[in-house]
Amino acid sequence: MKKSKNTFNKEQIITIMKEKSFWKRKEVFTCISIFVAVCGMLLFYRNDTPQSNKVAVEFVEAKEQNTPKIIELPGNIEPYITVDIRSRVDGQIMTVNFKEGQNVKKGDLLFQLDSRGFVDQLNKAQAQLESDLAKLTNAQAEEKRYGQLLGQEVVSVEAYQQKLTNLNTTQATIDSDKADIKNAQLQIDYSNITSPVDGKTGPILLKEGNMVKANDTNSLVSINTISPIYCSFSVSEKYLDVIKNSKANNLLKLVVKTNKDAEISNGEILFIDNQINEGTGTIKVKGLIPNTDEVLWPGESVQVYLQLYSKENAIIIPDKAVQIGPNGQYVFVIDKDNKAKIRNIEIDFTNGGYTVIASGLKAGEKIVTNGQIRLQDGTEVKIIGDK
Question: What is the distance between the alpha carbons of residues 171 and 169, in angstroms, rounded to a whole number?
Answer without folding.
Answer: 5
